[in-house]
Amino acid sequence: MKAELVNNNFFATGCESGKRSRLEVYFDILHILAYRKPMRLTHITQKANLNGAKTKQYLTLLTAKNLIAKSILGKSCALVYSITPQGLAALRKFEELTQTLPLPENRSEVYGFANQTEGMVIAK
User: Fold this and answer.
1) What are the residues whose beta carbons fall under 8 Å from the beta carbon of 67, sequence distance 6 or more?
2) Is-contact 70 63, C-beta < 8 A?
3) CATH assignment at residue 36
4) Does any domain span residue 29?
5) Range of the domain at 37
6) 47 with 8: CB under 8 angstroms?
7) Does some domain include residue 43?
8) What is the spatial distance between Cα 113 and Cα 111, in angstroms, rounded to a whole number?
9) Helices (H) and strands (E) in the chain — how many of each?
10) d(CA 34, CA 69)
11) For every one of its 124 residues, what pLDDT tens digit does the chain have, with 9 covering 90 and above?
12) Which of 30, 52, 60, 83 is positioned for an S-S bond with 91, CB 3.0–4.6 A?
């Protein structure tokens, strides 16, 4: 099973509520940049289905980890983002992992139960 781009996102669902984890968002952004030319913040925000403030936070971390790079584009001096070789390598590893361990439709499948609290150990 290969992970696919669904509704502009790498992951069809993160969990029952539809909310993606941070890791899923990071790889959505990497996936978006891997298959497109360098993009402005606004376009990444739209394609990743995020708000501008959150997108900036994610891009800052990905840039700090050298998974994406910022550059100035042409005469318009537009700030654009593109994926780096390290970002492509991380994306490939993640895609390999999702082929080996398919993503569950919802988080409860990871633990083998749905909406059960009996027997759970809760840290205090």
Assistant:
1) 26, 30, 83, 84, 86, 87, 90
2) yes
3) 1.10.10.10
4) yes
5) 22-111
6) yes
7) yes
8) 6
9) 5, 3
10) 12
11) 334 444 445 444 444 456 888 888 999 999 999 988 899 999 999 999 999 999 999 999 999 999 999 999 888 889 999 999 999 999 999 888 888 887 665 544 444 444 443 443 334 3
12) 30
